[in-house]
């Protein structure tokens, strides 16, 4: 039945599946442990350490920001987006995820980076390296599903109240962009209507 519904009624089948997931498989709130409890021990295979030291966090955040050329002119919201894909019955599924992440979804990397870049101790360390992130700037981790263009934003409960209007605008713009991308893709299909609504 599921295969028939997906084949003959893909839109309605997808909508039904999404509603069922939303009602019966709710998202579980999680937090990330990013900071090592003890900065003194060196991590090794024999003595693994959970999280990064503050110095390691500063080093990694600075290196990434320099690599992408974002060292000044920060906007109020900065979205760091990983990507992955949702697909069914595809033996090559990993090819649609992030190659740099060994064929896995790189959304958690965006979430981790945002978490590190929002820490006050990391921002203080970055100042010493010449990267000054304004107090009113906030990083948001995200994951872009390259199959349906859905963008999942992480840890929105931590976004300061002063940036809620900017967050609302961001969500609205993302929705418009997803819709326009779907329209662009649809026009490439021979069976698609000339002017889809």
Task: Give structural notes.
With 197 residues, the protein is mainly α. 40% of the residues lie in helices and 10% in strands. It is built from 6 helices and 3 strands, in the order αααβααββα. Strands 1-2-3 form a 3-stranded mixed sheet. A hairpin with a 5-residue loop joins β2 and β3. α1 (2-8) crosses α2 (10-24) and α3 packs across α5 (120-128).
The biggest beta sheet is recorded as: 3 strands, mixed
Overall pLDDT metric: 86
Topology order in helix (H) and strand (E) letters? HHHEHHEEH
N→C terminal distance = 29 Å
The total of helices stands at: 6
What is the CA-based Rg, rounded? Answer: 20 Å
Helical residue percent? 40-55%
Instruction: State which percent range the strand residues make up.
Output: 5-15%
**Total DSSP E strands:** 3
């Amino acid at each position: 039945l599921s295969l028939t519904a997906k084949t003959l009624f893909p839109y309605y089948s997808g909508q039904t599946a999404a509603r069922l997931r939303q009602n019966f498989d709710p998202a579980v709130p999680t937090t990330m442990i990013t900071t090592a409890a003890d900065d003194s021990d060196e991590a090794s295979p024999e003595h693994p350490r959970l999280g990064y030291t503050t110095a390691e966090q500063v080093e990694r955040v600075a290196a990434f920001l320099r690599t992408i050329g974002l060292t000044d002119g920060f906007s109020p919201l900065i979205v760091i987006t990983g990507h992955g894909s949702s697909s069914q019955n595809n033996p090559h599924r990993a090819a649609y995820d992030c190659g740099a992440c060994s064929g896995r979804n790189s959304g958690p990397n965006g979430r981790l980076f945002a978490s590190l870049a929002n820490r006050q101790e990391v921002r203080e360390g970055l100042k010493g390296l010449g990267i000054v992130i304004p107090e009113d700037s906030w990083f948001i981790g995200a994951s872009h599903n390259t199959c349906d263009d859905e963008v999942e934003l992480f840890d929105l409960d931590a976004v300061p109240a002063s940036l809620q209007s900017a967050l609302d605008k961001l969500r609205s713009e993302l929705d418009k962009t997803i819709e326009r991308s779907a329209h662009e893709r649809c026009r490439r299909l021979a069976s698609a209507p000339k002017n889809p609504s």
